[in-house]
Amino acid sequence: MSGVGKGVTSASIGKILQSRGYKVTAIKIDPYVNVDAGTMNPTEHGEVFVTEDGDETDQDVGNYERFLNVDILRDNYMTTGRVYQSVICRERNLEYGGKCVEVVPHIPEEVIRRIKKAASKAKADITIIEVGGTVGEYQNILFLEAARLMHFEHPDDVAFVLVSYLPVPSTLGEMKTKPTQYAVQQVNAAGIQPDFIICRSIKQIDEPRRKKLSTFCNVVKENVISNPDVGSIYEIPLILEKERLSDKIIKKLKLKAKSKDLRQWQRMVAAIKKVKKTVKIGIVGKYFATGDFILPDAYISVIEALKHAAWINRVKVEIDWINSDAYEKDASLVKELKNYDGIVVPGGFGKRGIEGKILAIKYARENKLPFLGLCYGMQLATIEFARHVCRMEGANTTEIDPKTKYPVIHIMPDQAEKLAKKQYGNTMRLGAYPCVLTKNSISAKAYGTTRISERHRHRYEFNNDYRERLTKKGFVLAGLSPDKKLVEIVEVSNHPFFVGTQFHPELKSRPLNPHPLFKALVTAAVKNKK
Q1: Helix (H) or strand (E) holding 411
Q2: DSSP string spanning 178-222?
């Protein structure tokens, strides 16, 4: 099933193999016809993770980066749309020499070509390839065919891992293996025999069920690996290693065994478990609801960045989802923010919920509540300050109100041209750009330097026509592009922590290396709690 944990499992397998001294990279295959994740609704698909080189990818690429502590680039992400686009382009360029180009074998061959290219560019010893979706889905079959062909050509170089969920119905209290048995039959029908089954469940798999899966799924019992629910996803590499999974994969791939070193990771997990104190952070957004359920995946990098920052501050972060729509319906509800130690207003697009976010930002500014605004959050902080401090009634972004009297946020010139041509896909300002920080600003103190590089994803920016008017009232332009044309970070003076970034700092946070701004936010939140 979807959401079973393939991404975290893939990242964890990569981590334990990395700990054995191998250079590891990871690739995500998405079955969508979308060319990239940039045009996918976050409520349906989860967050869009932006790479250093400006690709809009699936959130699992973020998991790979956080676990492996390496930058995963454009070549390591593919979709059905991207693969077909390449094949059609090559056919138009006569690169197939006049052959009849067919779905099979040319699509699987293009998948294999991309896998080999990514592995080669990363100079990887081992490449983890995650095929998105669930077994038996029609759209996955061509990727499974590519996997089958790779195994057929290089049987000693390819290992298959099936991640499957073993339900424990509450009315029965018994773990069921039949869904996994059927899943194995589905991949068998595609010509693939799993070498390992990773058993996801609420509890450890016991010996009778391990034996049953071995018998009915044609997998040796030792390769049926238990992966139960845990308090932190960062425990998973240690759980897999407890079952000696890296040894088993190394043996299957006929690689030379090397000594393992997970000490730093073990210390981190041990420290996480010891933490008792908490801080309460509210995330004010609108991409939460999916029917009657909450979808935290829409802001997964923000959540993980907060956790990383909390642990280094020796606290746990208690996160609440605050739907900004509610504040628009009843402005008095914003007073509930007094119950929080800090708030984050993350990125987003469109009109819905923004007035509620502006109310939350106003409360944070006036009540000295630690605040971090990300991308759209920074733009809304600018609008809030313009309206309520500089008395620019009706100040807005031209994204929402093209005729506003005070367009303090407006579209970047090159982006206006692209939108006029309806060029929406992969056309925003994307990827890593340098930034110069103002000395003695909150941000410069947090980073410990005045020169940084951060990842972006936006079309609109701070309108320079309003620089002087806002800064006179205490608005601080704490970070600019090297040519000083673009405002990258804003702050408010005489506030313990009020920072808005045009970029997305959450994308570069790692568990062993928390992002400086998130670390500073949590530090301020801890002080606020006291």
Answers
A1: strand 407-411
A2: HHHHHHHHHHHHTT---SEEEEEESS---HHHHHHHHHHHT--GG
**H-run or E-run covering 164:** strand 161-165
Nearest-angstrom CA–CA distance, 204 and 502? 44
Gyration radius of the chain over CA positions: 25
Residue position matching structure tokens 């592995």: 119
Half-sphere exposure in the Cβ direction for 401 (13 Å, CA): 15
Question: Which residues are part of the catalytic machinery?
Answer: 375, 504, 506
> Please, what sign has the CA dihedral across residues 93, 96, 102, 108?
negative
Q: Each residue of 457-481: pLDDT tens digit?
A: 998 999 999 999 999 999 999 999 9
Calpha distance 3→297 (Å, rounded):
10
Q: How many CB atoms lie within 10 A of CB 296?
A: 15
pLDDT digits (tens, 9 = 90+) for 332-384: 999 999 999 999 999 887 788 899 999 999 999 999 999 999 999 999 999 99
Strands annotated E in 210-306: 224-228, 278-285, 289-290, 293-294
Supply 297's token pair. 């995946």
3-state secondary structure of 513: strand
Please give the Cα distance from 40 to 32 (Å, whole number): 10
Yes or no: say if 241 and 262 are a contact pair by the CB < 8 Å rule.
yes
The pLDDT score that the predictor gives to residue 295 is 66
- Residue 238's region, left for phi above 0, alpha for psi from -120 to 50, else beta, is alpha
Which residue is it, tokens 């290219």?
117
The CA-atom distances, in angstroms, between 356 and each of 172, 216, 329, 330, 481 are 45, 55, 8, 9, 30
Give the mean pLDDT of the chain: 94
Please list the residues that pair with 320 across neighbouring strands: 282
Q: Which residue has the tokens 């790979």?
A: 64
Phi-psi region of 406 (alpha: psi -120 to 50; beta: other; left: phi over 0): beta
Where is 146: in which H helix or E strand?
helix 141-153
User: Which whole-number Å values give the CA distances from 510 to 24, 49, 205, 241, 513, in the listed order?
Assistant: 17, 14, 30, 21, 5
Round to whole Å and give the CA distance between 76 and 78. Answer: 7
Q: Which ranges of 421-514 does DSSP label H, i.e. alpha helix?
A: 442-447, 467-471
